[in-house]
Write a structure and sequence with these properties.
The complex is a heterodimer of chains A (about 300) and B (about 270). With about 300 residues, chain A is mostly helical. Helix content of chain A is about 75%, strand content about 0%. In chain A, helix 5 crosses helix 9. Chain A starts with a helix and ends with a helix. Chain B contains eleven helices and no strands. Classes of the chains: A mainly alpha (about 300), B mainly alpha (about 270).
Chain lengths: ~300, ~270
């Protein structure tokens, strides 16, 4: 006990450098996003009206505070493009997360049923694609899905279709890309909870006469809910703000919020509106973020 | 007793289909990178033509070099900071600001990259920092140190603390006990954390696009602008090279961690 207490003090000193880093490069930047989201757009470099100039003294600060405006947020709320983009992002992310759970659960379940030695191999096999680049994996699908790509060639050769099908720039292609990219993220937390589960519980249910589907539905599934929650959040939150996948695979007639933010920033050079869009996105995601934070904390800090 | 806990046909089929789904597109991409034909979809025999093309593409080579430098630098700083953070979180007990600290470390794992990228850019603009190598490196360090912290923290959590306590009971001061006992035990997790940070940095498009300056594009930025114009066989070759590089890093690191961990208990990335 005493040894443990001695250890904690130097361990706390270890926090200083990473703490300072995260405050400076993660927390403080949000203050700038908030500040710029409240300022006016200007054709300048950088393209917004400077707000604070502390060198000019108190007078300038008061003038700046008076100039703060919610115009950018009003614009977001009144422009149907943005409202649609937020709704679409949430809808796409919910749908994709549901598909991911449906596909990922049987795979994770199969992994957890493997003999111990093979479980490690299966886990490596699931993780390795996650290490290869996101962009490369999406590009691999463009290869397959394009007009004269492999998929159309196979379908034509098998006489399933008589002319090439348009796959790229459709929502189906986007969902395929999202599911493909995020599959390891849903499998790993599911597998972690399923592998930890006591097999005796399922055996007991079966011995007491429950058919396999009841064993699964009444015992296995409820016990795996923490993994379901962690995996679903690990996918849902980043998918809402996803840019690369919808940009490369979906059509351009309806955008997700990550794309509108990107366009606003890089094409229209409207930094204040882009900042306001980011703030709204953050607020939308606050509840799932907090939930995820709690789950992560419980998982990493249990047993204390 | 019923055969619960055994592999059913359903289990085998879903596993096989899942792995095929994960690997087939990548395998197809690699095969087509050796295609002699300019048309990506017509097979014209085996050839190294597109690799040759890549090595003569100065802009691509420069971008690749930039990406490699950023990945090595940011992964190294991130490993140092992430490990420190993991030690503080799992051994530091309760300290002031702990909740904020862990929140700041877990949030970037899921935070949409457009938000992280935009906010860092606005900071760099406010600081009047020249955008290029260092701003991208700082941005990547911020993102990847969180992954390192999680990987190392989960290893520290599963470690038997009596080993450290025994070392201190035998007269080691805490720092020595950490260096002599804890550090060798968590080394595989630290190696896994570095690899993860390295590949995440090599992979990132969104945050790099926001934080880089004119004239210093990373490889994903170059690839992205090419991909937007359509499929090019040269891109298949570059992607294959990146996949090969990552495969080598994974193999070397897993061999190293096997050698260093005599317990045979390996760290699971993520």
């Amino acid at each position: 006990m005493s040894a443990r207490r001695i250890f904690t003090r130097p361990a706390r000193f270890a926090a200083i450098a990473p703490y300072g880093w995260m405050v400076l490069f993660f927390l403080v930047p949000f203050a700038f996003v908030l500040k710029i989201s409240l300022s006016q757009t200007a054709i300048a470099q950088p393209p917004y009206e400077p707000l604070f100039d502390l060198t000019a003294g108190w007078q300038a600060v008061r003038a700046a505070l008076a100039a703060l405006s919610l115009d950018n947020f009003k614009l977001l709320a009144s422009d149907s493009l943005y409202v649609f983009a937020y709704v679409r992002s949430l809808y796409v992310s919910l749908t994709a997360t549901a598909i991911l759970l449906l596909i990922g659960y049987p795979i994770a379940y199969g992994m957890a049923r493997l003999p111990k030695r093979w479980q490690a191999v299966a886990m490596v096999l699931v993780i390795v694609p996650f290490w290869t680049s996101f962009l490369i994996r999406i590009y691999a699908w463009i290869n397959i899905l394009q007009h004269d790509g492999l998929l159309n060639q196979i379908l034509l050769a098998l006489h399933i279709v008589s002319r090439p099908v348009v796959w790229l720039s459709t929502d189906s292609a986007m969902y395929l890309g999202i599911v493909y990219s995020y599959l390891p993220f849903i499998i790993l937390p599911l597998y972690a909870t399923l592998a930890k589960m006591e097999p005796a519980l399922e055996e007991a249910a079966a011995d007491l006469g429950a058919p396999p589907w009841q064993v699964f539905w009444l015992v296995t599934f409820p016990l795996s809910l923490p993994g379901v929650g962690a995996g679903a959040l690990l996918c849902f939150i980043p998918i809402v703000g996803e840019f690369v996948i919808p940009d490369l695979l979906a059509g351009s007639n309806s955008l997700m919020i990550g794309q509108t933010l990107w366009l606003e920033f890089f094409t229209n050079k409207d930094w204040p509106v882009a900042s306001a869009a980011a703030i709204v996105l953050l607020v939308v995601l606050l509840a799932p973020l907090l939930l995820y934070d709690r789950l992560q904390r419980r998982q990493l800090e249990q047993g204390r | 007793m019923r055969r619960i806990g055994r592999l059913s046909n359903f289990n085998v089929v879903s596993l096989a289909l899942g792995l095929a789904f994960l690997y087939l597109p990548i395998i197809i991409l690699v095969i087509y990178s050796f295609n002699a034909s300019r048309l990506v979809t017509v097979w014209g025999g085996w050839s190294l033509r597109w690799y040759h093309e890549f090595f003569n593409d100065r802009a691509m080579i420069e971008a690749a070099w930039m990406s490699l430098r950023v990945a090595v630098c940011s992964a190294s700083i991130a490993t140092l900071l992430g490990t420190l953070a993991a030690v503080a979180l799992s051994r530091g007990g309760r300290f002031a600001g702990r909740t904020l600290f862990s929140g700041m470390l877990y949030a970037p794992l899921v935070m949409p990259e457009v938000i992280t990228g935009l906010s860092l850019l606005l900071l760099f603009v406010a600081l009047n920092a020249e955008r290029g190598f260092w701003t991208v490196t700082i941005a990547h360090t911020t993102l990847t140190m969180c992954f390192v912290a999680v990987v190392v923290q989960s290893r520290l959590g599963s470690l038997d603390r009596s080993l450290e306590e025994a070392a201190m009971d035998l007269g080691c001061d805490p720092v020595r006990a950490f260096l002599a006992v804890t550090l060798p035990l968590i080394a595989p997790a630290i190696a896994a954390g570095w690899m993860l940070a390295f590949t995440l940095s090599l992979d990132d498009l969104v945050i790099a696009s926001f934080t880089t300056g004119p004239g210093s594009a990373t490889l994903p930025i170059r690839i992205y602008s090419e991909v937007r114009l359509g499929v090019k066989p040269e891109i298949n070759a570059i992607c294959t090279l990146v996949i090969a590089l990552i495969a080598v890093v994974i193999i070397v690191a897993s061999l190293a961690s096997k050698l260093s961990s005599t317990q045979g208990e390996s760290a699971a990335p993520l």
